[in-house]
Protein: STEAP4 metalloreductase
Amino acid sequence: MEKTSTDASPLTMHSSEKQETVCIFGTGDFGRSLGLKMLQCGYSIVFGSRTPGMSSLLPSDAEVMSYSDAAQKSDIIIITIHREHYDFLTELTEVLKGKILVDVSNNLKINQYPESNAEYLAQLVPGTHVVKAFNTISAWALQSGALDASRQVFICGNDSKAKQRVMDVVRSLGLTPLDKGSLMAANEIENYPLQLFPMWRFPFYLSAVLCVFFFFYCVIREVIYPYVYERDRTFRLPISIPNRVFPIAALTLLALVYPGVVAAILQLYQGTKYRRFPDWLDHWMLCRKQLGLIALGFAFLHVLYTLVIPIRYYVRWTSNNRTITQVHLYSLVFSYF
Ligand SMILES: NC(=O)C1=CN([C@@H]2O[C@H](COP(=O)(O)OP(=O)(O)OC[C@H]3O[C@@H](n4cnc5c(N)ncnc54)[C@H](OP(=O)(O)O)[C@@H]3O)[C@@H](O)[C@H]2O)C=CC1
Ligand SMILES: [Cu+2]
Structure:
């Protein structure tokens, strides 16, 4: 049965419309959350479990049976089991023949195994169509509905029909599938959740280096150099100098938001625009937004510091003023005698 749901109608499946049955292997955290979400979106769910009788906490509308019984109920099987426990699936090779297996697994480390979990699953159970999906969605987000920032589901697989069907499921859950190609992309998709803010790292390091550099530059120019003959300058270190560093960093980062010029020069130099950019330029182009946001942050700090400085001057002025009046007073009093 081919479903043809589109982006236009996520989460609004009419219950009169008979939805297909989807099987979920494993009744852990993720299996339960995904099952509940799919039930809410109108699917019938059959769970496969080692201990079908013991599974509490499961949505009451779902059926729970042994792995081999559950597998027969649907031709889409979502494997919500950790990779280390995949071995038992070899016993089910016959039942699983021709079915779509959706691998959702993640690892604890980048490149933990020589091959991706999805490719491993495909080798383990030959004759199935393995599709990688859902690994960047967390059980917590599925349950709490906090999916605003992460609606994207990366998909890859060798069988385009199987992939298409999984993409339809993804869409009907109100998520956005992103086709990453064949199963060879699974490794990249599995590493993705392990990279903490991947596009922020370079802009972050760059701004740190800029700040440190200009800070020391200003310290040398304005504190160490005049130290020999000038008065107290401690106020400069935490306030004035950072306030000079921030706009410099902000403007430099802002200038770096436009690598297009470099790209254009490179294209002119290469004489073609159909050649891939080198990795560094590619990465630079991709993190423009983050560079711009950090620049904005620095500009904001500059505004804040600029507002603080006059307060400091005011404090200094009032204390100076008090001293001067007292001196005047004393000199008046003394001159009287
Ligand atoms: N939790 C999350 O937020 C996310 C998890 N994932 C992936 O989903 C998969 C499941 O994760 P999660 O639900 O958190 O894990 P859990 O440990 O909560 O659940 C794993 C389930 O696997 C089943 N299982 C089958 N064989 C074994 C075995 N030999 N030993 C232990 N369990 C077995 C069990 O179900 P039963 O007892 O019914 O047989 C168990 O409940 C993992 O691959 C994970 O990387 C992906 C994205 C997010
Ligand atoms: Cu300014």
Notes: Residues 1-16 have pLDDT under 50 and may be disordered. Residues 247, 302 surround copper (II) ion (ligand 2) (CB under 6 Å).
